[in-house]
C-alpha cells in the first residue's frame, strides 16, 4: 500500500516539477542556458514581470484591508447574521476568477444591461473602466480577500483569554486592548494571509486574461498563454523558463513571509477563546449596514449584472418584458455542442478527480499521521507543491511530461482529456488530503488497535473500521475538489483541445468571441452549481473538524 501511494504522489506531484526544471536548464537532455538567456533578455518578459508584481502587490493591499475589517467584525463583535455574512464574503473565493471578471465587466460600461435597465449607463463610446490595470488590481483584491479573512479569523480564535483578561484588569479599555495586544498578536496570520493573497494573485490567469488582454496589459500568466497559443509546442522551452519565473515569484512571496515571522517570537501560552466580545450597542445597526453594503457592492451587484446579461436577447439592451428571454440558457445547455461538451467534460473530470483523490487520501492520511517517518512527511509536503505553484506552471509542466509518447505504451496524453485529468489529480490532491488528516488527528486509535489485535491486516481495517469513521471528512474533501475543479481555467486553458473543452475554457472563449450573453448564461449556471454545493455541504459541518468547511462555521 505504501509503495503504491508513494508512486502516486511522486507521479502527480514531483514528476511534473522535475520535468519543468529539466526543460528549462537542459532542453533536449543537454545542459543549455541559451533559451533562458533569450527569455530573460526579452523586454516583454520584464514588462510582464513588472505588471505581475504591481497588480499582485496592490491587489494584496486591498485583500488585507477587506479581510481585516470583516474578520474583526465577525470574530470580535456581536453583529447579527454572521453565518450568512461569512458565506457571502467567501463566495468570491469559490467563484472562478474568469466568472468574477465577466460579472464585473457586465456591471460597468455603456453596454451593461443592468445599468441600461436602471438608466445609469454611461454614454455610448465610453470605455469600460474594468478593462485596465486598476480593474485587475481591484478584482484580484476582492477575489483573494477571503484568504486573509480565514487566516485572521483563525488567529483571533486562538488568542488566549489570559492576555485579554490581564490587560483588562490593569485598566486598559477595549480599544487599547485591540490596538496594543490583539492586532500585534495577529501579525503571523496577517503575514500568512497576505502571502497567500500575493501568491494567488501572481498565478491568477482568469482575471488578467479577461481584463488585461483586451486592454493590452500583459502579466506573466497571460504572456505564457499567448506565446503557447500563437506558436504551439515549438516554444515550450521558452514557456518553461517563464513558468519557472512565475514559480520563483510565488516562492519569493512565501520566503518573505518566513523572514518576516522569524524576526520576533509570537508564541503565547494560554487557553484559546473568543478574544474580545465587543458589544456594539447603538452602533450595531450601522456596522451591520456597512457590512452588508460591502457584500452588495462586491458580490451581489456583479452577480446581478451577470444574471441580467444572461437574460437579454442582445448585449447592450436594457432588461425589459420585450428583451427578457431564456434562449441563452437553452442555447448553452441543449443546443451548442461546445457548451454541452464542456458541462459534460467538467462534470466528469471534477467528479472523477474527487473520487480518485478521496480513495487515495484516506490511506495516505492514516499512514502520515499514525505511522510517520521521513518518507511519509516528505509525501505530505510533496502533495502541497502542485497546489502551491501557480496553475499556469502546472499546465506547462504537464505538457512537458506528456508531450512525447509514454514509454512502452507508445501513445501521448497531449491533446487528450486525460492530460487535464492528470493535472486535476496533481493540483487538488492536497484539498482532499487536508480534511482527512484533520479527522485522523482527532480520531481515537482504540478501534483500529482492537481490530489489529484480532489479526486484521491494514487493508481490511481500512475498509471496515477506518473508512466508515473518516467517510465524512473524505466526502468534504471530495466536494472541495469537485467545486474547485468544476470551473477551473488556469490549468485547462493550456491543456484543452477540440472536443475536450471545460466550462472555464468555454466562458473565456465565448467572451473572447463577443458572445457575452451566452458566456454569462454558462457563468450563471456554474455559479448556481457552486452555491448549491456549498449549501448542501453545510449539512456535513457537524460531522467534520472545525474549519474544513469555512462557510459552514
Any key phrases for this structure?
553 residues, mainly alpha, MetI-like fold, 24 helices
Short summary of the structure?
By secondary structure, the chain is an all-alpha fold.
Describe the structure.
- By secondary structure, the protein is mainly α.
- The protein has two domains: 275 residues, MetI-like fold (Orthogonal Bundle); 222 residues, MetI-like (MetI-like fold, Orthogonal Bundle).
- It is built from 24 helices and no strands.
Strand residues, percent: under 5%
Computed structural class: mainly alpha
First-to-last CA distance: 35 Å
Shape: globular
Relevant CATH superfamily of the largest domain: MetI-like
Biggest sheet details:
none
The low-confidence runs, each spanning 5 or more residues with pLDDT under 50, are none
The CATH class of the largest domain: Mainly Alpha
Mean pLDDT: 85
CATH architecture of the largest domain: Orthogonal Bundle
Give the SSE string.
HHHHHHHHHHHHHHHHHHHHHHHH
Rg value = 24 Å
Helix and strand arrangement:
Layout lengths: L1 H24 L8 H7 L2 H34 L5 H13 L2 H11 L5 H6 L14 H25 L3 H9 L4 H12 L1 H17 L2 H10 L4 H12 L4 H27 L21 H28 L15 H9 L1 H35 L2 H15 L2 H12 L14 H25 L4 H8 L4 H29 L5 H4 L7 H10 L3 H22 L16
Amino acid at each position: 500500500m505504501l509503495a503504491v501511494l508513494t508512486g502516486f504522489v511522486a507521479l502527480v506531484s514531483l514528476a511534473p516539477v522535475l520535468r519543468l526544471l529539466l526543460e528549462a536548464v537542459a532542453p533536449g537532455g543537454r545542459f543549455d542556458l541559451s533559451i533562458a538567456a533569450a527569455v530573460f533578455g526579452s523586454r516583454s518578459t520584464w514588462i510582464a514581470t513588472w505588471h505581475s508584481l504591481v497588480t499582485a502587490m496592490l491587489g494584496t493591499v486591498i485583500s488585507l484591508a477587506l479581510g481585516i475589517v470583516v474578520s474583526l467584525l465577525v470574530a470580535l463583535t456581536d453583529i447579527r447574521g454572521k453565518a450568512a455574512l461569512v458565506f457571502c464574503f467567501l463566495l468570491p473565493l469559490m467563484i472562478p476568477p474568469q466568472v468574477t471578471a465577466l460579472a464585473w465587466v457586465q456591471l460597468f460600461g455603456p453596454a451593461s444591461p443592468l445599468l441600461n435597465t436602471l438608466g445609469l449607463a454611461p454614454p455610448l463610446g465610453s470605455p469600460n473602466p474594468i478593462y485596465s490595470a486598476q480593474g485587475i488590481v481591484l478584482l484580484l483584491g476582492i477575489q483573494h480577500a477571503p484568504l486573509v479573512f480565514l487566516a485572521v479569523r483563525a488567529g483571533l480564535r486562538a488568542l488566549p483569554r489570559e492576555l485579554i483578561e490581564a490587560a483588562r484588569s490593569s485598566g486598559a479599555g477595549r480599544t487599547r486592548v485591540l490596538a496594543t495586544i490583539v492586532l500585534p498578536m495577529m501579525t503571523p496570520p496577517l503575514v500568512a494571509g497576505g502571502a497567500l493573497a500575493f501568491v494567488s494573485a501572481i498565478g491568477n490567469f482568469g482575471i488578467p486574461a479577461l481584463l488585461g488582454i483586451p486592454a493590452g496589459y500583459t502579466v506573466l500568466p497571460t504572456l505564457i498563454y499567448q506565446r503557447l497559443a500563437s506558436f504551439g509546442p515549438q516554444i515550450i522551452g521558452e514557456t518553461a523558463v517563464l513558468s519557472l519565473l512565475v514559480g520563483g515569484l510565488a516562492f519569493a512571496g512565501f520566503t518573505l513571509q518566513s523572514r518576516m515571522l522569524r524576526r520576533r517570537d509570537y508564541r503565547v501560552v494560554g487557553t484559546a477563546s473568543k478574544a474580545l466580545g465587543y458589544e456594539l450597542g447603538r452602533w450595531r445597526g450601522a456596522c451591520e449596514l456597512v457590512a452588508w453594503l460591502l457584500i452588495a457592492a462586491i458580490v451581489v451587484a456583479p452577480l446581478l449584472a451577470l444574471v441580467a446579461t444572461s437574460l437579454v436577447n442582445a448585449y447592450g439592451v436594457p432588461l425589459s418584458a420585450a428583451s427578457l428571454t431564456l434562449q441563452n440558457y437553452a442555447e448553452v445547455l441543449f443546443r451548442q455542442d461546445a457548451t454541452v461538451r464542456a458541462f459534460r467534460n467538467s462534470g466528469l473530470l471534477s467528479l472523477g478527480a474527487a473520487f480518485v483523490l478521496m480513495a487515495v487520501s484516506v490511506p495516505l492520511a492514516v499512514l502520515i499521521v499514525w505511522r510517520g517517518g521521513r518518507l511519509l512527511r516528505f509525501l505530505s509536503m510533496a502533495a502541497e507543491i502542485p497546489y502551491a505553484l501557480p496553475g499556469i506552471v502546472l499546465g506547462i509542466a504537464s505538457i512537458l511530461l506528456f508531450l512525447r509518447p509514454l514509454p512502452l505504451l507508445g501513445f501521448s496524453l497531449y491533446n487528450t482529456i486525460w492530460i487535464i485529468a492528470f493535472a486535476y489529480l496533481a493540483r487538488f490532491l492536497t484539498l482532499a488530503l487536508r480534511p482527512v488528516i484533520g479527522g485522523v488527528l482527532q480520531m481515537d486509535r482504540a478501534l483500529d488497535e482492537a481490530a489489529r489485535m484480532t489479526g486484521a491486516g491494514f487493508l481490511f481495517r481500512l475498509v471496515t473500521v477506518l473508512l466508515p469513521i473518516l467517510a465524512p471528512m473524505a466526502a468534504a474533501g471530495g466536494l472541495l475538489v469537485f467545486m474547485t475543479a468544476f470551473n477551473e481555467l488556469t490549468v485547462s486553458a493550456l491543456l484543452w483541445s477540440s472536443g475536450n473543452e471545460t466550462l472555464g475554457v468555454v466562458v473565456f472563449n465565448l467572451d473572447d468571441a463577443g458572445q457575452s450573453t451566452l458566456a454569462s448564461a454558462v457563468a450563471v449556471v456554474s455559479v448556481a452549481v457552486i452555491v448549491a454545493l456549498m449549501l448542501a455541504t453545510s449539512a456535513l459541518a457537524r460531522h467534520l473538524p472545525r474549519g474544513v468547511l469555512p462557510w459552514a462555521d
